[in-house]
Design a protein that fits this description.
TIM Barrel; Lyase, Ornithine Decarboxylase, Chain A, domain 1; 2 domains; 8-stranded parallel beta sheet
Amino acid sequence: MSGGSRAEIVVDLDAIGHNVSTLRALTGVAMITVVKADAYGHGMLPVARAARAAGAEWLAVATLDEVRRLRAAGDTGRLLTWLTVPDEQYDHAIRADVDLTAYSVAELDEIAAAATHVGAPARVQLKVDTGLSRGGAARADWEPFLARARAGEQAGQWKVTGIWSHFACADEPAHPANDAQQAAFDDALALADDIGLTPEIRHLANSAAAILRPQSRYDAVRVGLATYGLDPAPGVDHGTDLRVAMTVRAELALVKQLEAGDAVSYGHTWTAPERTTIGLVPAGYAEGVPVAGSNRLEVTVDGKRRPVRGRVCMDQVLVDLGGDTPPEGSEVVLFGPPGGGRATAQDWAEACGTINYEIVTRIGGRMTRRYTGATS
C-alpha cells in the first residue's frame, strides 16, 4: 500500500461501470443510480462520474447536502433527492435544477414558497406509501396530496416530473407484499391520471425488483446496492453478472507467538487451545469493523483465510495465523470480491447478523480510499 496507509478501501470503477451498463441492458428502462451515503461507502463523486459514463440517466441521493456536493463537483444531469425535514432550505436545489421529492401537502407548500422566492418553478416528484410505511404520502392522503400537486403545477410553482414508491420485500420474490405494493402503486398512478398529472417517469423498483420483477420496472429503476456488485437478494438464483467493486485491505502490523492458555483482547473472550501465532491487523471499529464480528469474522492473510480472535478493538483486530509466521507487512484482505479464498461483504454480514449494505456503508473511518479502472 502506498503513502503509509494502515488500511485502505480500493474501489474498482470499471466494476461500477460494468454493473450500471449491465443493469441498463437487463431492464431496458432509464437508470437511476443511487449514490447516497457516499455511494454506499464507495465514494460519491468518483462513483457518480463512473455511473454517468456508463449511461446512467439519473443519479439519486437522500439529502440536500449530497445534492450540493454533486452540483459543486460539476454534475449537471438529472438528479433526484428525497429526504428532507420541515423548514428545509430548497432554494439552492431549485436553482440547481434538482428533482425534489415531496411526501405531503405541507412539504409541497414549503417547496411552493421556495419556488416563489427563487422566481423559478421547481421540479417535484411525488412519493406515495404503498406498504413500506416509511416515507411517502399515506393512502388516505393520496387524493389531497395529488390534488395539491396538480394545483401547484397549474399555478406554475413546479413541474411534477415523477411519481414513485419503494418496495419492502423485493429481495423475497414470493412475498405477498410485492404484488400488494405494486397494485397499490397502480392505484396511485390511476388516481394521479384522473387528477390530471402526467409525470415524466414512474418508478417503483429498487435493485432487487429491477433484477427479479420485470413487471415493476415502469419508466425507470432505482439501483443502489447492485451498482456496487453486491447481491440485493442473497440466496435467490438470478444469474445477473454483477462485479464487486470494493476491496478492503491492510498490512499485517505484528506477528507473535501464543502459548496454549493465552487469552486474547478485551474481556478474554477467546483463549488459545494450543500453541499458535496471532497477527495484528491495524483496523478496528473506528474503521467500521463490527464489534459484533468478534470471534466470528474471517479475513485473508497472505492468501490464507484466517479467523478473527477475541474482541474487535477500536483500532485493531487479531487473527489466528494457525502457527504460520507470514512476514509483517503481508497483505490482509478484510473483504472483497468472491474468489481466491477472500471473505466477502456478504460473509461478514452473515457473521454479524446484518446485511451487506451495512458492512460496505459503515467501513471507512481512518482508512484511505483508492480508485482503479479506466475512469479513476
